[in-house]
Amino acid sequence: MPLKLVGSTAEWSFPVVFLTSLVVLLLSLLFVLRIRRKLLMKLPPGPPTWPIVGSMFTIIRTRGRPSSRVFTTLAKRYGPLLFFWIGLRPTIVVSSAEMAMALLRTCDRTFASRPKFAPGKYLGYGYSNVVFAPSGPHFRLLRKLYASELLSPAKIERMLPLRMEEVGATIRCILESVASADEQAKACVIDVRSLMLSANLNIIGRMLFSKRLFDLDTKPDTDVHHTADGLGVPAVSPRRKAAEEFKSFVKEATKLIGGSFNAGDYIPALRWLDLQGVERTLRQFQPKIERLLLPLIQEHRRRHAFAIKEKENSDQLDFIGSLLVGHSELSDNNLIAISIDLLVGGSDSTAASVEWTLAELLRHPDLLQKVQEELDIVVGRQKMVTESDISKLLFFNCVIKESLRLHPPVPTGAPHFSTSACTLGDYTIPPHTTAYVNIHAINRDPTIWADPEAFRPHRFFDSCFNVYGQDFGLLPFSSGRRGCPGVHAALANLKLMLASLLHSFSWTLPPSIPNPKDLDMRERVGIVSPKLTPLQAIVRPRLPTDLILETLKT
Ligand code: HEM
C-alpha cells in the first residue's frame, strides 16, 4: 500500500522509506561509533570530520596545492601530529622531528606496511614491488635484496664506470647542442628537467638491464620548442620515439601513483564505480608497461639461461641478471614490478633534485660562483671531475644538503600503514591507519633551522646533520624500514652529474628572467615534486672544449 507523505507531492513507497531510514541509521551509528572511539582512544586533533566522507572535502578543496603545503597549514592549526579521516581511512600526518622519530623509529615495525591503493594493484602487479608491498616475507626478501645486493654501497661503487659514461654522454650532448647552435652565441638553452630525466633513466636502465634507454641525440630537432631566451637556439631534446615513450611512462606512472585522487581508495564501496576513472587509466596503462619492459626481461631470460646453470658471479651482472641467477622463482611480472620500483622511484626524484639545485644556484649567482671557484681549486681546469674529487668539495656538499633540505623531491614520502594500534606521544593511533611524514615541513621547521625558507648552504659547514635518516630534522630520504633504499645510488648519481655540469659549463638564466629572484620556485603537485615550470638555462662551455672531448674519449 503506497505511503503518502504529509506536505509532500512525492509518493514514496514503503521499501524506499525503509531503506533510506536504514542508511541514515547506519551512517549515524557509524558516526557515533567514531566519536565513541575518539573519546575512548584519545585520538590526536585534526580538522572536522563527517560521516562516511571524513575530512575528504577539506582535502579536496585544496586540490591544486601540494599536499605537503596543505598538511603544513593544518599542522599550524592542530599541531605536529594530525589525525583525520579520508573517507573510511583513519589518517595521520607527522610534521615535527620528534613525531617523525616516534613514527619511524619507535613505531617503525607497526607502520612498516603500505595501504592497498589502486596504483599498487596495477603498477605493482598485485602489490608485489617494494614501494607498494605490504609488510611480510615478500617485502622483507625484496628489501634484503636491495640492501645487500642491488643497491648496496659496494654495488653502487662498482658502477662508477657506468656513471662516468652517462655523465660524459650528457656533457657531449650539451656540447653538440652548443656546436649546432648560433655560431655567435656559443651557447644553448637546455631544458634541465628533460635532459636530467633522460640521463637518469639511462643510468637506471643500465643498472637494471645493461641497456641505455635513450639515445641522447643532440642535433636540433625540427619539432624542438624554441624558448623565450632571445638567442634563438634550440632546447636539447632526445628524439627517439622509444625514448619518449619511456619518459612519458615515468611521468604518467608518477602522476598515477601520487597525483590522482581516487575516492574508491578511501571508500571501498565506491571502488566499482571508479568515479575519477583512475582504475580504468591504470588498467589501460598496464599493456603499455608490458610493451616496454617485457621484451627487455625476456631477452635477459634467454641471455642468462646459461648463467643460471653456472651460477655466474652476480657482481658482474646487472640487476635483472642477478635476480634471474639468484632468484629464478621470480616471475616476469615480479621483475616488471621491480623494474618499475627503480625506474619510477629513482629517475624523476634524482632529476628533480638536480633541477632544484641548479635553480637555487641560478637564483643566487654569488653561490654559483663560489661552487665553481671551489671546483677550480679542488679539480682544476686541466681535467674533469672524478668521483674521488667529490668528498673534497666541502661547499658543494653543503649545497647538495641544503637543496635536499629546502626542496625534498618526495615531500610527503610514500604512505605508511599500521598493522596494529600504537601510541604516538600522548595519543593512541588505531590499527589500519595511513601515515604521512611531512618531510617538507620538518626540513623547514623553524625550531631546528634558522631562517628556514632561505637557501643558505653555509649552515651545513658547522652542522653534523646528514641525509641518511639518522637525523629526524632532515629527512629527504625518510628513515627506518621503509626509508629510501636508493639513497646511495641517488647521491652518487646526483653529485657526479651536478659537479661535472657546474665544472664544465657556465650557467645563466634566459634573458626572459632578467632578475634571478623572479625565477618561479613553486613546486608541482604529486608524489615527486619537481619545479612547477621546468627549468630552462643557458649553458656555455667553461672548460676548453678540446679538453672535455679528449677526456671523454678516454
Ligand atoms: C634524490 C633522489 C631520491 C629521493 C629524495 C628519494 C626519496 C625517497 C623517499 C622519501 C621515499 C619514501 C620512504 C618512506 O616511505 O618512508 C623513497 C622510497 C623509495 N625509493 Fe627513493 N628517493 C630517491 C632516489 C631513489 C633511487 C635512485 C632509487 C632506486 C634506484 C629509489 C628507490 C626507492 C624505492 C624502491 C622506494 C620504496 C621503499 C619501500 O617502500 O620500502 N629512490 N624514496
Key features?
554 residues; alpha+beta; four-stranded mixed sheet; 20 helices; globular; binds protoporphyrin IX containing FE
Strand order of the largest sheet: 3-4-9-6
Q: Beta fraction of the residues?
A: 5-15%
Number of helix segments? 20
What Rg, in angstroms, do the CA atoms define?
A: 26 Å
Q: State the assembly state of the protein chains.
A: single chain
The share of residues in helices is 40-55%
Shape: globular
What is the residue-mean pLDDT, rounded to a whole number? Answer: 86
Terminal-residue CA separation: 93 Å
Low-confidence stretches: 1-10, 217-239
Biggest pleated-sheet summary: 4 strands, mixed
Structural class: alpha+beta
3D architecture notes:
There is one protein chain. The protein has 554 residues and is of the alpha+beta class. Helices cover 50% and strands 8% of the residues. It is built from 20 helices and eleven strands. Strands 3-4-9-6 form a four-stranded mixed β-sheet. Strands 5-11-10 form a three-stranded antiparallel β-sheet. A two-stranded antiparallel sheet has the order 1-2. Helix 8 (160-179) runs antiparallel to helix 20 (545-553), helix 14 crosses helix 17 (394-406) and helix 14 packs across helix 19 (487-504). The longest helix has 33 residues, at 278-310. The N and C termini lie far apart (93 Å). Residues 1-10 and 217-239 have low confidence and may be disordered.
